[in-house]
Amino acid sequence: MTPDVHESPDVHESPPDSPGKRRRSPRLTLPGCWGALLFTCLSFTPSLLPRGGILQGLIAGISAAIGYGLGVIAAYVWRAFADREARSPSSRSWQILCGSALVLFGLAFGFGQYWQHEIRRLMGVSDYNVLATIACPFVAALVFLLLLYAGRGLRRLYRWVAGLLGRWVGPRAAQVVGWLVVAALAWSVFSGVLLSGFVNAANEAFSLRDDETPEGVHQPTSALRSGGPGSLVPWGSLGREGRAFTGSGPTAGDIGSFTHRRALEPVRAYAGLETADDTESRAKRAVADLERAGGFQRANLLVLTTTGSGWVDPAAVDSFEYLGDGDSATVAMQYSYLPSWLSYLVDQSKARAAGRELFDAVYDVWSKLPQDKRPRLFVAGESLGSFGGETAFSGEYDLRNRTAGTLFAGPPNFNALFREFSDHRDKGSPEIEPVYRDGRTVRFTEDPTTGIPPTDEPWNDTRVLYLMHASDPIVWWSPDLALSEPDWIGQAPGPDVLESMVWIPFVTFWQVTADLPFSTGVPDGHGHTYKAAYVDGWNTVMRPTGFTPQDLDRLKDVIHPEG
Asked: Where are the transmembrane segments (predicted)?
């Protein structure tokens, strides 16, 4: 939404319209149109996930607006160095632009369809909407015009403010202060009114949904579950996702039928937003219910930080329980009403507090038990849950000394420990699968079945494992993408990322940003979808006995039947 900064109050790309002459709408500049054309064509280059026509149109429209603004700025800077006024382009110049646009856009559109086909092939996606593809150019044009008019609206506001200030200060000072005032006003409106208003409205809407109980879920009859008989946490306070967590999962019979060994009924403790008024109180209530149900007498204890509205991936917990023969307990709690993708953007502080308070409350009880009576203490989290889970620890040694193992899946790029381990990885290791200090504690993998590097180094004692797909936009999205090329793009791509993906200033940022809401809409093993990988991940971290490779394959079919 960059305004036409070349058009200061006394400088114009073309002569002003004479009185009575009808003004063309929209009034475009030639340099801006060349920039818009270039960035529109570049927007068709591939990113991490397959894109439909509507989404591609949105990205193309945003890219065109950015390109238009950059073209206008470039022309303004060039005229300043050339020390000349703006001139109206000739008809011939516009004809060349139109001819070039037809050829270049056609080529970009064609290559774009080919690249999207290749990405769908890599991920096993068969969906393709012809009508959405046809609508792509029209969506792009609409988005471009909306952003263009928004930018020009800000420019008019700037002119009015600068003119008002010009009554008391010099023209240059009025222009500078005018831009600062308009920029501050626009940001305050967006962040303080529009953004907060949207978040508040979403919070209210999803809080109503939180009162529902998922279909097929019933209040547990076992005292080993929160919300069940004798529980310190009422069923009605668990929230939708809490009820789904405690009201489902494998029973001792299910686990025993699979392993052909004696199994125990797993313990599941949970606290919802309605359970207590603040994060610390909710954590204490969840841990008190965990202790009541005998969770600290189990062999394996898992502290899990949820995502979004309190969601717990069944694949993560079910795998943990099967591989532990049911001799396990899991505790989690809710910290937001918002769904995962929205919590990812606005609830980072709540996730941080939840992860820290819950682990500290568990550790306080666990550390006071006799050493020979303590369960093995594990930590897990997916997406924003991994962000919250990390906050309870200061680094590698803390993870190793206070846990028996950790499994994080799809960590957001802003995770503090994830960034520390990745940024300080061993020389020569790629960002998509880094090696940190010879892998002595922390390791990373796309697929645990293919060997977790470094395969020739010992991995003793506590194991901390990050599952992260090369095509997961949650892992790779960062504001830095707008202006700097990350290592993961310049290095060899992962198995489900096209080699044709390149970094382009501004464009790549919006492409990966557009991938975020659709990161879970791809088959398991790609994007932000981690299901079957939890079986091999927990097998690696827990190191259970009595499970053959064939058993693990069968368990994957149980955990994720569609996989």
From this structure: 28-49, 55-82, 94-116, 128-150, 176-199
C-alpha 497: how far from chain center = 17
Instruction: Using alpha carbons, list the distances in angstroms from residue 212 to 121, 218, 269.
Output: 38, 12, 19
Cβ–Cβ under 8 Å, residues 467 and 529: no
Report whether 324 contacts 544 (CB < 8 A).
yes
Average pLDDT over all residues of the chain = 90
Count CB neighbours of 212 within 10 A.
Answer: 11
CA distance from start to end of the chain = 43
Alpha-helix runs per DSSP H in 367-442: 384-390, 396-402, 416-423
Residue 563: what pLDDT? 46
**Nearest in space to 271 (alpha carbons), one of 294, 302, 237:** 237
pLDDT for position 525:
94
Helix, coil or strand: residue 14: coil
How, if at all, do strands 328-333 and 376-382 pair?
A: unpaired
Is 495 exposed, middle or buried, given 0-12, 13-18 or 19+ CB atoms closer than 10 A? middle
Query: 444: which strand partners?
Result: 466
Per-residue pLDDT tens over the stretch 171-188? 888 777 877 887 877 776
ω before 454 within 30° of 0 (cis)? yes
Residue 70 and residue 4: Cα distance in Å, rounded? Answer: 9
DSSP annotation of 235: G
Backbone angles phi, psi at 328, to 5 degrees: -145, 160
Residues 389, 305 contacting (CB under 8 angstroms): yes
For the ranges 80-89, 296-305, 342-351, 399-408, the lowest mean pLDDT is seen at 342-351
Average pLDDT over residues 519-528: 94
Predicted TM-score of the model (pTM)? 0.87
From 12-21, 133-142, 145-154, 516-525, the region with the lowest mean pLDDT = 12-21
Q: Can you name the residues that pair with 268 across neighbouring β-strands?
A: 225, 330
Name 378's bridge partners.
Answer: 302, 405
Q: What is d(CA 358, CA 306) in angstroms, rounded to the nearest whole number?
A: 11
Q: Which two tokens stand for residue 511?
A: 């492409």
CA distances 75 to 5, 35, 80, 86, 427, Å, are 10, 10, 9, 9, 43
Task: Give buried/exposed letters for 52-83 (b at 16+ CB in 10 A, else e).
Answer: bbbbbbbbbbbbbbbbbbbbbbebbeebeeee
Q: What's the mean pLDDT in 38-47?
A: 97
